[in-house]
Amino acid sequence: MRIPPLTNRYILFAIGYGVLILGWLTPEESTVWVVGMLGWGLAYLLAGLFIRQRWGGRKLRDRIWIPLAIMLGAIIGLAAAGLTFLLMLMKNVQHSHLVLDFSNEITLGILERAPLWAATGLFANLAFVLIYLTVRRREWDDETDGRTWHRPDYHRMVE
Prior knowledge:
- The protein has 159 residues and is mainly α.
- The chain has one domain (8-147).
- It is 74% helix and 0% strand.
- The chain has helices at residues 8-25, 32-55, 65-95, 104-112, 114-143, 154-158.
- Helix 1 runs antiparallel to helix 2 (32-55), helix 3 (65-95) packs antiparallel against helix 4 (104-112) and helix 3 (65-95) packs across helix 5.
């Protein structure tokens, strides 16, 4: 399977996500799950930008996808924790009230839970890749009328 190259559409999506984050920074909003989702989205977006820019267009074997998904998912999970912390910090610094939008306990609690975020990223990315490979396998089975063997002498091997 080929890694998709970096396209203008993906770059425009990244710019739109940046505008979304800037829109989130302006109002007085301190919901933790919103900043968590923004951090996860930013981590996946940055990972996609890096991978597409560096290795876009290259072909990878199917057997490497699962170990790659495990490793990449853990890295994305750690990055999501760090990016969520930075987003919270940016909002606190930008508004600079006497009462912070996100208290120190909440912001440091995100960093304390970074190993859990890494495990969550690992399992989420593994699930995405397994679902993708399963759907791809079904499409391949539909193309071959359900035959899983392409050897012309397969019926002789069974008898």
